[in-house]
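the four lines:
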Amino acid sequence: MPRPSSARLDKTGIVQIAASLGVSPSTVSRALRPETSHLVRADRRKQIMDMAEKQHFSPNPGARMLRKGANATLTVVVPFDENIFFSEYYGRFLAGTLHAAAARGWGVQISTMRRSENTNFREAMQHMSLESSGIIYLAEPLTHQELEELKGFRRPFVLTKSTLPEDVDVRALGLPVLSVDNLSGARSVASLLLQLGHRRIGLLLGPEGSRDAHERKQGYLEMLQKNGAVPRPEWIYSGPFNAESGRAGIEKILKCAERPTAICCANDEIAFGAMHAAHLAGVRCPDDISIVGFDDGHWATACQPALTTIRQPLSDLAERAVGLIVEAANNPGQIRRFVSDDMPASMMIRESTGPLRRSE
Amino acid sequence: MPRPSSARLDKTGIVQIAASLGVSPSTVSRALRPETSHLVRADRRKQIMDMAEKQHFSPNPGARMLRKGANATLTVVVPFDENIFFSEYYGRFLAGTLHAAAARGWGVQISTMRRSENTNFREAMQHMSLESSGIIYLAEPLTHQELEELKGFRRPFVLTKSTLPEDVDVRALGLPVLSVDNLSGARSVASLLLQLGHRRIGLLLGPEGSRDAHERKQGYLEMLQKNGAVPRPEWIYSGPFNAESGRAGIEKILKCAERPTAICCANDEIAFGAMHAAHLAGVRCPDDISIVGFDDGHWATACQPALTTIRQPLSDLAERAVGLIVEAANNPGQIRRFVSDDMPASMMIRESTGPLRRSE
DNA sequence: GCTTGCATTGCAAACGTTGTCATTTGATAC
DNA sequence: GTATCAAATGACAACGTTTGCAATGCAAGC
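prediction for all of em together
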């Protein structure tokens, strides 16, 4: 039996409720919204709410949004990765975003973006911004061409410096970029090792192509060079940001005739791997070797020994990103081509670093 | 709220663009949407797109939503917690949700929900569902009263069993509930220990009030009792789901005159804490004591020794949750009061369990 | 009885976009 | 030149809610 064309009785709107009670839609609308419900006589209000309940009414989000103007939602674009939430960076940044957005009454939408496919970047961004008022881009590194495309993008958005190619000058870029000061973070922790007396310092660096890895490397090298502690080439290892890379790196370094007495790692996971492999090899930390990480990951205090590392102000970063989006959304037209200062990272000195032993 | 009627000439809509080019809004709409842009002559399309670019046009999401019907977005409600993403449960579930939603062309919105305040639960849910087509509730445990309220809730939603009070019968509840089979997971891992010859088995249980903790406890006890291996009271410890709790628990247990030879933990973090404290106390795992966890957390394979544990099918769970929401959104009216079967968990046998030593 | 003021309700106009027509345009074939 | 047909465009009506304004009813004050 084809359904009678008149049907769709199940479509409950404010109008149906009004009709079934013999009142006007206006009254129903007023009764149902807390801000205006005082305008409706108490008994009628109850009547309406009961009927809404009975008819399983729920307001049409689109209509309300249209009527009220903007939607208080921003989109965070993250890489498509099974383990995305477990990374200190994304996990803490996202939590910060949720927090900051909630404080402003905003919602957060999380979208993944795969860059491998040959999808049009511009269109993908357009599509994402369609249902929200702004974008925080945290996904995979952008190409120069995509950055150019982004200059013409007219919805509020924010990048993090981590998504930029190494050779891009942030100040000259003219896009809203937020960042953590990798350079001085790396310098300060290298400086700590120097102060502890270490001169033979190895480096377990991150992957090629990562701007974060590059800047941390710069920071380490710069500080070491300035103090005449240039690491030997065989003390330097590059690999992905994971524990396995740390293991491989330290194993290679421990084979050297002359070993370093301290190691700077490009992030905590590398440091964990290194610490673990060193332990297995009978090399004690910090007695035989000092190790520093970067990120202050979730397990930095839980591991043995607790890791000396750099804490990135990710919740501040998130707070700022959300603030920029909300501001831009509230002042359309005058989009600020904002270039942020680096936000300072702080050193967390724990147990994995110690003074150089006298015998060395 | 009276909007600033004076200014806002810059309010670019499809209509303004049409006007400035002397074409009709329909044409602009068609030109701007990829699906229909082929209907517009190429040169005109370019003209329109350029103008849209120049005027910083971006489509009004509300209007589109209203016109098109539903919006393909679902909301995941999680507890308000700084470290939310680092928990294996939420991290993997959310990643699974993102994956499953993306596969269907849906977006995912993540909302936090604090239960401590005396906010009206119903209203909070209502508010959340306002901007999306369905809700997956993963936040803090619900009260009986809230469950009752939920029965009248007419937007698509799904709960997980973890959010229910211990004494609620899922089958009788009549709400869409998804769950992992804690019971048989716990049974299987207890059974493994028994097969390895262990009879003196301790329990490091989770917090009171957590349904997951309760069910795992049930599973452990049931299997042990059935095999005449009832644990002594002093071998049982309850605490929060974290490593500290595991440390405290094992320390208490190690003080007993007669020590157990194996320990079942309510989750991985507790197991980590226990393993760590045992190590510090000179008790070797698995030689002196076997330890099993629950969750197959991110570090279960990274720790030393690798942890024998139960892997929850969280991505399957997420996939199913998203599937139910999407289905419900596509078939409004016929909301299924769906009660899921438990989804089976699988045992991951690693290095933290070993056979009972002969001397024992 | 008439005004005044207040509480309550209805009317109708938006909000910006999209899809369904109907209409125009342009090209091709006769 | 006209008929034919497809492509391109325009006119217009929704979509469901909110809100300014007007209308009504009611009670109190004169």
